[in-house]
Specification:
Elements lengths: L4 H32 L3 H7 L11 H9 L1 H33 L6 H13 L4 H11 L7 H4 L7 H14 L2 H9 L4 H12 L1 H17 L2 H6 L9 H17 L5 H7 L3 H33 L4
Amino acid sequence: MRKSKEEKTFQIIGNTVMIIMTILAVAPILLVLIVSLTDNQTLIREGYRYFPKKWSLAAYEYIFLKNPQIVRAYLVSFELTAAGTACALAITTTLAYAISRRGLPGRGIITFYIFFTMLFNGGLVPQYVNYVNIFHIKDTFFALLIPNLMCGAFNVMLMKSYFVSSIPNEILEAAYIDGATEGQTFLRVVVPLAKPIIATIGLFAGIAYWNDWNNGYIYLMKSTHLYSIQNLLNRIVQNINFLLQSSDSSAAALISELPSVSVRMAMSIAGVLPVLLIYPFVQNNFVKGITLGGVKG
């Protein structure tokens, strides 16, 4: 089928716009990567450039060979992301499946309560008081794991919509007729059919945990060994800003001990790299899960 002149023009304009947007999105990341591979003295002398005169791997050597604190922060981030994503998927999937079943007593009330939390919350101070004084998560690994991120109302509603719109009730009834219990039906029938939305929610949760710095900033006061890479980056930036504004004569010496610009850029690249590596493997499921999960509520 031959395309009309209008369709060809629209396709050319659309492709041009997408190419420009892609370049605008990739160019900053590419610059950060190049800066991280630039010799530090060259960087100080010439500034940020896409084509530096001298390349160097010193920044990555500093991160992975000379600074155990940075390596430990990356390990904490990987552990947190793995544990948080698993917990988030377990809670979100089971809760979404429960409220998708029409025979669940109080289904409407539970659904309203979940939706209500998308609009209102108790505020930072009550949340802090509860987690610190009741759950005692301050200065523990659970301070990074539990608050805010383990179960999101939006993710629950998105997965619930997928269960309602994309898994025929006849399949579930057939499983019940064959003698399957509710748990067996969920694990052997629903979960295999829900791989696209599970991959989507897993990506949402994983990125949220990997990028989170707020929980560590609020709840980790003494246990700096539990800092994730985002918390460590935030602390480094704060220290540099404080020393730059200080009039103390010893500030210059302290600044020299902090990671240089190329090292901070290398840390940023190492922080983004896992997401860039994982996304291509879940891209198809991600698009399908979003499309089908948002069809109806």
